[in-house]
């Protein structure tokens, strides 16, 4: 499908400026509809963007005002969830000033009052998204929307909040965006910005461009048949239908003139002539390019790999089909990866049996360490998941073309009606091999802190890249996780507009199994020790991952919001030493965040 919005006649104001460079021209040679400058930086804009009203509450019937507390009820650095009668708000006091914003994280609805307040922003306790308390804007991810911001006034020592009833109900705010000036000026085979891939990185890039006032043509293309969706739910909530997990509805793409080409695969990129060549022969010129193609799951290489009912979970249809086939049947999962373990957890109550085959001795050993891995393994075993460790699949046997048995190299034969493969993935960058874009020995696209490749005007983001991680002294790393893909997309978009922004986010991820979640922040690759606080047997713990004397990552279960607190410390550029872990753990459990400002002793 090609979503092409209806052409509209619009009036625009163009402020004259000096001769523009070729980089500011559309690929068809026509001037890009810029032009005004903010702080010396050229921005795209046009008048159809909704103006900022001087009175945001233009409908008096939609407004509620309530006294919520006395001015002395909150100390600096405190947050309180307050009820306005028709909805709740988060009241915050920082540096002597009161702020009021939405009380739920727009991502999955986490209560922000249980999050972390630090230096003008609040961080979600579940998945680490950050919001500016003054504007409500989202500053770190996951999620796409910011928080609604409410008016606060002080009268006679009482704090009043004035809010839109609608905002109190929705608890989210989509930032204003520009639209395309007029698609009638464009040749269908040319675009200003082409985004290859429609995951989190691609969508955030497109949205950020529109939020910054970019009003030229944007085209996204994807091999998928669906518009961008919440991919982590494919293994965490497997029976979700595509429309239930869509990141944005179809109307959003039409409204903001973001065109999406579905079921379209790019076969090659001609860097010199700025042309993307699709598998069906269609060619599209571009001015700026974002490559956000993600990963391709690895397949099994054993005998019988082509039999029916063997799946890589890549699409909502894959996940739905596995749930249907697995119900009251025998399931074998190959690979104790995040995907493999989440699928095992989801199917454990639905299938007759769930067996998990893994080459390592313990699940998650390389990522969470042996002790945490064993605790997780024990939780799975108590939920009827059977592990076959330190072995591999040697053969898949069929009956009438469909899977019947999985044969292991250990000699064990497992009954199997369906098999899910989760043995890792490789970057989907094969189409770039002859392009001139710098690819490392593992197939990852190499980018700098601004998500730029070695080719001017070509950016890359998401699971398919290696980038310098500030947290680890700018070591080039690959972080194939949802939050990071969002941030990559935003940084790439801002640098397409010459903002000069460098990535500096702290990686943050989570996994959900049997109603419990492990949160994780940092980058623990190469850790040499794990310091455990809490009780692994009770699944209430915090694990600090250290390299030499420094904490490089933290994971927790049932200890929210400690991972978000550590993420804020790392984001502030403060080091946590191994010798201080006992003290830091106690310090964070008290809720005291003075560590961030250096006031803690």
TrEMBL record:
Residues 66-161 form the Rieske domain. The keyword Glycosyltransferase does not apply. Keywords: 2Fe-2S, Apoptosis, Electron transport, FAD, Flavoprotein, Iron, Iron-sulfur, Metal-binding, Mitochondrion, Oxidoreductase, Transport. One of its GO terms (cellular component) is mitochondrion. InterPro entries: FAD-oxidoreductase/Apoptosis, FAD/NAD-bd_sf, FAD/NAD-binding_dom, FAD/NAD-linked_Rdtase_dimer_sf, Reductase_C, Rieske_2Fe-2S, Rieske_2Fe-2S_sf. It is found in: Mitochondrion. One of its GO terms (biological process) is execution phase of apoptosis. Pfam families: Pyr_redox_2, Reductase_C, Rieske. The keyword Iron applies. GO terms for molecular function: 2 iron, 2 sulfur cluster binding; metal ion binding; oxidoreductase activity, acting on NAD(P)H. PANTHER family: APOPTOSIS-INDUCING FACTOR 1 (PTHR43557), APOPTOSIS-INDUCING FACTOR 3 (PTHR43557:SF8). Belongs to the FAD-dependent oxidoreductase family. This is Apoptosis-inducing factor 3. It comes from Podilymbus podiceps. The lineage of its organism: Eukaryota, Metazoa, Chordata, Craniata, Vertebrata. The gene is Aifm3.
């Amino acid at each position: 499908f090609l979503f092409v919005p209806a052409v509209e006649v619009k009036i625009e104001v163009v402020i004259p400026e000096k001769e523009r460079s070729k980089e500011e021209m559309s690929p068809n040679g026509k001037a890009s509809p810029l032009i005004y400058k903010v702080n010396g930086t050229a921005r795209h804009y046009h008048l159809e963007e909704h103006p900022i009203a001087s009175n945001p509450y233009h409908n008096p019937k939609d407004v509620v005002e309530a006294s919520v507390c006395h001015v002395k009820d909150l100390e600096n650095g405190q947050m309180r969830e307050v009820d306005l009668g028709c909805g709740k708000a988060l009241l915050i006091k920082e540096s002597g000033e009161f702020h009021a914003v939405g009380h739920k994280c727009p991502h999955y609805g986490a209560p922000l009052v249980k999050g972390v307040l630090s230096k003008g922003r609040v961080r979600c306790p579940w998945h680490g998204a950050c919001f500016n308390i003054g504007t409500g804007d989202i500053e770190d991810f996951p999620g796409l929307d910011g928080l609604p911001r409410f008016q606060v006034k002080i009268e006679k020592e009482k704090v009043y909040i004035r809010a839109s009833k609608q905002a109190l109900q929705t608890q989210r705010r989509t930032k204003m965006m520009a639209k395309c000036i007029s698609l009638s000026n464009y040749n269908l085979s040319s675009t200003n910005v082409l985004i290859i891939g429609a995951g989190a990185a691609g969508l955030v890039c497109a949205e950020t461009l529109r939020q910054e006032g970019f009003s030229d043509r944007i085209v996204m293309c994807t091999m998928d048949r669906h518009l961008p969706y919440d991919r982590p739910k494919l293994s965490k909530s497997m029976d979700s239908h595509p429309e239930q997990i869509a990141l944005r509805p179809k109307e959003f793409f039409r409204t903001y003139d973001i065109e999406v080409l579905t079921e379209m695969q790019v076969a090659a990129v001609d860097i010199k002539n700025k042309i993307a060549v699709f598998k069906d022969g269609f060619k599209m010129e571009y001015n700026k390019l974002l490559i956000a193609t993600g990963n391709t799951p690895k397949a099994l290489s054993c005998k019988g790999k082509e039999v029916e009912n063997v799946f890589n979970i890549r699409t909502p249809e894959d996940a739905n089909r596995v749930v249907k086939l697995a119900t009251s049947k025998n399931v074998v999962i190959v690979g104790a990866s995040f995907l493999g373990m989440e699928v095992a957890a989801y199917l454990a109550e639905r299938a007759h049996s769930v067996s998990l085959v893994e080459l390592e001795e313990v699940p998650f050993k390389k990522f969470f360490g042996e002790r945490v891995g064993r605790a997780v393994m024990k939780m799975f075993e108590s939920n009827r998941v059977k592990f076959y460790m330190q072995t591999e699949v040697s053969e898949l046997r069929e009956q009438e073309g469909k899977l019947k048995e999985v044969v292991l190299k250990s000699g064990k034969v497992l009954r199997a009606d369906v098999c899910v493969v989760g043995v890792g993935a490789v970057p989907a960058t094969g189409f770039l091999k002859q392009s001139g874009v710098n690819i490392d020995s593992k197939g990852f696209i190499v980018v700098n802190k601004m998500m730029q490749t070695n080719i001017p005007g070509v950016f890359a983001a998401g699971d398919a890249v290696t980038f310098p991680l500030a947290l680890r002294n700018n070591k080039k790393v690959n972080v194939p996780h949802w939050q990071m893909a969002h941030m990559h997309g935003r940084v790439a978009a801002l640098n397409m507009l010459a903002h000069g922004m460098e990535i500096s986010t702290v990686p943050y991820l989570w996994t959900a199994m049997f109603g419990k979640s492990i949160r994780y922040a940092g980058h623990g690759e190469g850790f040499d020790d794990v310091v455990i606080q809490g009780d692994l047997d009770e699944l209430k713990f915090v694990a600090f991952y250290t390299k030499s004397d420094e904490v490089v990552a933290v994971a927790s279960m049932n200890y929210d919001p400690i991972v978000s607190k550590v993420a804020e410390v790392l984001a502030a550029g403060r080091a946590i030493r191994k010798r201080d872990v006992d003290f830091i753990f106690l310090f964070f459990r008290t809720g005291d965040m003075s560590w961030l400002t250096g006031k803690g002793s």
